[in-house]
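Hi L.,

You mentioned the student needs an example of a multi-chain input paired with its predicted structure. This one should do, with 224 residues in total across all chains.
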Amino acid sequence: MSAQALKGHLDGMLLAALEDGPRHGYAVMEILRAGSDGRFDLPTGTIYPALRRLERAGHVRAQWSEEGGRRRRVYELTPSGRRTLDDERHAWQEFSSAVTALLGPHRRPVTS
Amino acid sequence: MSAQALKGHLDGMLLAALEDGPRHGYAVMEILRAGSDGRFDLPTGTIYPALRRLERAGHVRAQWSEEGGRRRRVYELTPSGRRTLDDERHAWQEFSSAVTALLGPHRRPVTS
DNA sequence: TCACTACATGTAGCTTTACTACTCATACCG
DNA sequence: CGGTATGAGTAGTAAAGCTACATGTAGTGA
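Structure written out for the whole complex:
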């Protein structure tokens, strides 16, 4: 995976990981890793700042929780986050179909 | 389309636009615009530097041509460029299927 | 003739965003 | 007691597309 491939597509995936209920950062990380067959094995330096960004943007709400001596920051979608997720899904559809069309299948020269 | 969405995916599309024969920058720009139904209407400040980058990387070869008082820089794929295009196609498959899986379809709550 | 648009190429500086490389802390397992 | 998994974070860097410009020719309509 190219170093820049993720740019602009991470937020949507983070929001999607929170869609089915509140999750803490580490769990979101796992969801991305498992849900991509290990392809998105993102460093903590990517995921935590990204979640902070979403918080600042008002798309998620965060809350500290202590459970079994384990300090966790649990994130939850806001209504704005749900709307944004819808938008991101739509944008991804548009974007990916355009790239797929342009990249096209490899047309090998006819070898009749 | 998000400002960063293209990051890391442009090179492949540029190479693909050159696959069927040499093209000059402006023509490549048109191919991207037309082939994406107007979604990738990229500014010249994006396309020309990107082509230079591919040239420096050895993926395309460039040549000036004068035709009807029109000064054009014509780009052509190198063997390395063709290999890279194959790689980019493969990477795009991997990437887009992973994103699609994670973004997922919107599962609305059952409304029985 | 004049203005506007399409064609054609380019650069300098900005911005965004993911990554690298760290720090800190607890729980668990051998 | 040492290593790994869990859990959160920051500072600084690099990549790459975008904005806003400059430059020039050709064609078209008023």
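You could point out the following to them. Chain A touches chain B through 37 residues (CB under 8 Å). The CA atoms of residues 58 and 80 of chain A lie 7 Å apart.

Best wishes,
N.
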